[in-house]
């Protein structure tokens, strides 16, 4: 039976049959799915900081981080807005280029341990030098050196996406875009926007996105995570992005879904993050499989993994369990991610080669 027939058969199954099939996926199969080579496109550099690393740094610098950690040592937060403030408190211990070099190594070692072979990370000059181009260059140099060293040790390839923070406002975003434009090249390959989606409109940031585009950077924006499908349309229309961070609420507007398919817009979907922050009550209710079935190019990432108690291996395991995704589906997901990566073509070929199955 070929894959298409198998897929058709799956879609025709009722819930009980589907469940039986999922349970039929044995431990060995799940284990090999977990260990597949992976491409991750949506990762916030500071948000990926292992809690132990941040605690260690806070101790070294005698910074009081009370309220940032729970008794079990994990990050503490109540909801998305509180998460943003805990995130910024945790980030406050990262004060020098040297700190970011150590952070980069800690983050990449964790990703490599999850079999990630290529990763794109969101970097904010706001946190790295306060938006000053000269200071940003020093941070970037340190981050890049650490990434090269870790690639030598583990094989993981990293590229950076400069990201402005929506709730810091459009003026700050212009300074960030300038930092991005000044350092655009074979390592800083993209520009994006993250932060509180309820603040401002995408068009307020159009100037920054135009500046980044003119500097040769590829574009992505967080949208459709907290706001509805309309925010995805606005990001496409006003910022002219080619990828959307999250974008899951597009599912509520099928004309928009068709547009995503037609224009080959890739969604950087972070299922574990969406469940942890209660965008969806559980993975079974998450639209990733519906979007995939309709032909949208979906990819899988962790967003801020230790905050959401997830890893890339966990994401794969949970998706296999919830939706019966097998190695063929994950191959499609990783192919989507590699083709939507903002790196140069030589790097993309290397990544695609490493994704090839024997
Ligand atoms: Zn994100």
Q: How are the elements arranged and paired?
A:
Blueprint: H1 3-12, H2 15-23, H3 27-34, E1 38-44, H4 51-60, H5 80-91, H6 97-113, E2 116-123, H7 133-154, E3 157-165, H8 170-182, E4 188-194, H9 206-214, E5 218-223, H10 229-239, E6 243-246, H11 254-262, E7 266-269, H12 271-276, H13 288-293, E8 297-300, H14 312-323, H15 327-340, H16 345-355
Zinc ion binds next to strand 1.
Structure description:
With 358 residues, the protein is of the alpha/beta class. The protein has a single domain (14-49, 94-355), classed as TIM Barrel (Alpha-Beta Barrel), CATH 3.20.20. It is 50% helix and 14% strand. The chain has 16 helices and 8 strands. The protein has helices spanning 3-12, 15-23, 27-34, 51-60, 80-91, 97-113, 133-154, 170-182, 206-214, 229-239, 254-262, 271-276, 288-293, 312-323, 327-340, 345-355, and strands at residues 38-44, 116-123, 157-165, 188-194, 218-223, 243-246, 266-269, 297-300. An 8-stranded parallel beta sheet has the order 1-2-3-4-5-6-7-8, with helices on both faces. Strand 2 (116-123), helix 7 and strand 3 form a beta-alpha-beta unit. The radius of gyration is 20 Å and the shape is globular. Bound molecules: zinc ion (ZN).
Properties at a glance:
single chain, 358 residues, alpha/beta, TIM Barrel, 16 helices, 8 strands, binds zinc ion
Please give the alpha-carbon distance between the first and last residues: 20 Å
CATH second-level architecture: Alpha-Beta Barrel
Under CATH at level 1, the class stands as Alpha Beta
Shape type: globular
